[in-house]
Design brief:
The structure holds three protein chains of three kinds. By secondary structure, chain A is mainly alpha-helical. Chain A has two domains: 45 residues; 252 residues, Orthogonal Bundle (MetI-like fold), CATH 1.10.3720. The longest helix of chain A has 43 residues. Chain B is mainly alpha-helical. Chain B contains twelve helices and no strands. In chain B, α3 packs across α9, α6 runs antiparallel to α9 and α9 packs antiparallel against α12. Chain C is built from ten helices and ten strands. In chain C, α3 runs parallel beside α6, α4 packs across α6 and α6 packs parallel to α7. Classes of the chains: A mainly alpha, B mainly alpha, C alpha/beta. Chains in contact: A-B, A-C, B-C. Chains A and B meet through α1, α3, α4, α5 and α6 of A and α1, α3, α4, α5 and α6 of B.
């Protein structure tokens, strides 16, 4: 009996050793995230002024800013959202609510899982061949936005499906029992109830898009742009202009990349400052996503 | 009534088109890559491409051996996996088997932030924070190297590895877990003797996702690994990966249709094939294990 | 006839899931090398009671025991917080409702309890595995494929494998939680024969909602209702001449 007690003690000792290892393994990531943020903040803080946000890039590091970069990022994101959200949500709804189990839906499913694993730069190459040279959109905001839309499409589809799948069948049956058609059921029940999950997925997708660098380098984002795209509103009839879609562009991560790769210390300060803003954007978007998920989970209880 | 039915049909068709569009993405990836790669092999022999150990397409005389880029990619990936697989797995075991519910629910979203940080920021971190620190201990480490970006990529992909493995472990039915505890096993014994083998297919899938991410990661290596296509497995030296090469060419002004332009598609094709192979291995592994149980 | 000796003494046992009291003031003696059956309608607390014996409730937060279960002959209170649940589980084994073999070979499944105790001597393991598989009446069916995955076995074989796994560590008490509820009639009768066989060597407590099963395998039966023991006594007496009206109503199938 003593032998057994000794053994138990030893087993429990091993188990608690692992408790520490496991906890440390979990914390190491969090710790590094903190270090990363602090390091970035210390490096970039001196450059973080209003002027930094409202100046164009420049050869003189102290005068350089990120105006064209953040405007570019927002315009690209706008195009990305406009393209990826309707298609992604529609595809998700089709696969969950309409698609019968046959070879086509099977292939689509495998395909989407596979697309999610394709490196982002490969999307860049696709866009270079397809949008820049085949459709002749040029190295433009439109191309950049569509490229990132391709990239986040699988994410939007998967988020939509997951969130629709969580709706119990009884809701559908109740709706059909009242004589609603499929689309009415989707419109009135499925879509509103899954909105929280879908929004969460969309925001996380967009936050990924805003930080993506590689694919938009391949489609020809420029690293030095000292002007803004053409304004979308004009004084002449019809007052709306889409010329900006075909303007060349830069974006936040591109600007940061450009500054990081310069040897001068001053430019690296700019890089850190741009990095802080980029991080803040991503953190806000992810925080929003977590909040929405939490809110909707609380509101709807099956 | 007829109009209503017609409307339903139209809507279903529209939704179907959206769903099918994803297949067109894959098809166009394959078509675009193959088209340009085919053009590339019209000018460069496939044997030279696959066996050559010098990659200097932008210099005179140009040489087109892809191996340095492949070894560069494998080297940074290998380092990343050395970091991500153990840490990700241990953290998954901790979160799934040890951590109290509240802690797990708080830690998971924060851990997922690691995957949300823009990769260019990680690149900055690798080049300007980690490399200088490592150089204090490893004097022969050059300013650009494979080690530092490899480690950073590893940390970046921890959430992929840990969250998919954890899901797999938590999916192991409670009565299997209880069976082990009922024999007097500790949490540690239960986790390693029963839960990990039970969740093996999911863990393998998590590892493959991690590998595929590491192989495709671009900005960290483009910034911190040095854009030098060295044919080496020494992590202290600068290297270039397939992805970093594509970035390097894209940054310059390469005329459409030139051989330099085609090289990035050839490199992209190799990259695509590598990730595809990992995906297929993952698929096969999962199927095989599902049959075994 | 020798008087039966007591293996475990349950005294004033109360059990709570958070604020919900699931067991109320239970007093009962478990007799050595006898089969004791716990019967009662679903939700009456019989499984909760059974799981107190090997401290399974300790796996989940907010569970609380009151009272004591004294294990003889060394007189330790197995639900006392001072006693390590792992030690209790090493002395008292359990067989679950659904067969739950591990994703290992047949051999390793049976050897699991020994491995947990740090025993790795091949000869010892092989001997114990054979003995336990024979004890669970499974040896002849699996002796040629000990290195095959346990999942290859049928449901009934898997359950007997789980019994072998539980036997391998020489438990003082063997707990059965509705062990045949997931099995077909033939597999069920095999398990029942096995239980009758096993009681020569080990004390058995079995939860069942099949009254015929309780009548067939047990010597003592406790009828539980709403977390309390309504009646406890010799099985023949409970089933032929129950003294409580509630017991009679349950046995004759008027509720349950």
């Amino acid at each position: 009996m003593n032998e057994l007690k000794k053994r138990i003690k030893y087993n429990k000792f091993l188990s608690s050793i692992f408790l520490i290892i496991g906890l440390l393994s979990t914390l190491v990531g969090l710790f590094l995230l903190t270090v990363l943020f602090v390091d970035l903040f210390i490096d970039g803080y001196p450059r973080l002024t209003y002027k930094f946000l409202t100046s164009f890039p420049s050869r003189i590091p102290e005068k350089a800013g990120i105006l064209s970069a953040w405007v570019g990022s927002f315009l690209i994101l706008f195009v990305t959202a406009l393209a990826a959200i309707p298609i992604g949500v529609a595809a998700g709804i089709y696969l969950e609510e309409y698609g019968r189990k046959n070879w086509i839906t099977n292939i689509i499913e495998i395909n989407i899982a596979n697309l999610a694993g394709v490196p982002s730069i490969v999307y860049g190459l696709l866009a270079l061949g397809l949008f820049v040279y085949f459709f002749k959109f040029g190295e433009s905001i439109l191309t950049g936005g569509l490229t990132l839309a391709l990239l986040i499409l699988p994410m939007v589809i998967m988020a939509t499906r997951e969130s629709i799948r969580a709706i119990p069948n009884s809701i559908r049956e109740a709706s059909y029992a009242l004589g609603a058609t499929k689309w009415q059921t989707v419109q009135w029940h499925i879509f509103p109830y899954s909105l929280g999950g879908i929004l969460t997925g969309i925001i996380i997708g967009l936050s990924r898009a805003i930080g993506e660098t590689a694919p938009i380098i391949t489609v020809g984002a420029l690293t030095f742009i000292a002007f803004l795209p053409s304004p979308p509103i004009t004084s002449d009839f019809p007052f709306l202009s889409f010329k900006w879609l075909f303007d060349p562009f830069t974006a936040m991560p591109i600007q940061m990349f450009n500054w990081v790769s310069r040897p001068q210390k001053e430019f690296q300060v700019n890089a850190a400052a741009a990095g802080i803003i980029l991080m803040i954007m991503t953190l806000i978007m992810n925080g929003l996503a977590i909040y929405i998920r939490y809110r909707f989970r609380k509101k709807i209880k099956w | 009534m007829k109009i209503k039915k017609f409307k339903e049909r139209i809507i279903e068709s529209l939704l179907f088109i959206c769903a099918v569009s994803s297949i067109f993405i894959t098809l166009s990836i394959v078509v675009v890559l193959s088209y340009e790669t085919f053009g590339f092999f019209k000018e460069i022999s496939i044997v030279e491409f696959l066996t050559g150990t010098v990659w200097t397409p932008l210099f005179e005389p140009p040489k087109f051996g892809i191996l340095p880029l492949v070894t560069g990619t494998l080297l940074t990936t290998f380092i990343a996996l050395l970091v991500a697989l153990p840490l990700g797995l241990m953290s998954a075991v901790y979160l799934s088997e040890y951590a109290p519910h509240r802690l797990r629910e708080t830690v998971k979203p924060i851990l997922e932030l690691l995957a949300a940080v823009p990769t260019v920021v990680y690149g900055y971190f690798a080049l300007l924070f980690l490399t200088p620190i490592l150089q204090k201990f490893l004097t022969e480490l050059s300013g650009f190297n494979a080690l530092s970006p490899g480690i950073i990529i590893g940390i970046m992909i921890i959430p992929y590895v840990s969250s998919v493995s954890e899901d797999a472990m938590r999916a192991v039915p409670m009565h299997i877990r209880e069976g082990s505890y009922a024999m007097g096993a500790t949490k540690f014994q239960t986790a390693f003797k029963v839960i990990i083998p039970s969740a093996f297919s999911g863990i393998a899938a998590a590892f493959l996702i991690g590998i595929s991410r590491a192989v495709g990661e671009t900005m960290v290596v483009a910034i911190a690994a040095g854009m030098m296509p060295n044919f080496t497995i020494n992590p202290y030296e600068p290297v270039q990966t397939l992805t970093a090469y594509i970035v390097q060419v894209s940054l310059g002004d390469v005329p459409h249709g030139s051989i330099e332009y085609k090289t990035i598609f050839a490199a992209g094709m190799v990259l695509f094939m590598m990730t595809l192979i990992f995906n297929i291995i993952g698929f096969w592994l999962r199927k095989k294990i599902r049959e075994a149980y | 006839m020798v008087r039966d000796s007591i293996k475990a003494e349950v005294k004033n046992l109360n059990f709570f899931y958070g604020n919900v009291q699931a067991l109320k003031n239970i007093n009962l003696d478990i007799l050595e090398k006898r089969v004791t059956a716990l019967i009662g309608p679903s939700g009456c607390g019989k499984t909760t009671f059974l799981r107190c014996f090997n401290r399974m409730h300790d796996l989940y937060p907010h569970n609380r025991y009151e009272g004591s279960i004294i294990l003889k002959p060394d007189d330790i209170d197995i639900i006392s917080p001072n006693i390590d649940p792992i030690e209790v589980r090493m002395r008292i084994s359990m067989v679950f409702q659904k067969p739950n073999p591990f994703p290992k070979t047949i051999f390793e499944n049976v050897a699991y309890g020994l491995r947990v105790r740090g025993i790795s001597n091949k000869k010892v393991l092989a001997e114990v595995v054979e003995k336990s598989l024979r004890g669970a009446a499974l040896w002849d069916e699996v002796k040629d494929r000990l290195d095959k995955p346990a999942f290859d076995l049928s449901g009934g074989q898997q359950q007997r494998l789980c019994i072998a796994r539980a036997l391998a560590t020489n438990p003082e008490i063997l707990l059965f939680d509705e062990p045949t509820s997931a099995l077909d009639p033939i597999a069920t009768s095999k398990i029942e024969e096995l239980i009758v066989e096993l009681k020569n060597n080990v004390t058995i407590i079995i939860v069942t909602h099949n009254m015929q099963q309780a009548a067939r395998v047990s010597e003592y039966t406790a009828f539980m209702y709403l977390g309390e023991i309504i009646e406890y006594g010799k099985t023949e007496k409970i089933f032929t001449a129950p003294s409580e009206k509630l017991t009679e109503e349950y046995i004759t199938g008027r509720f349950g």
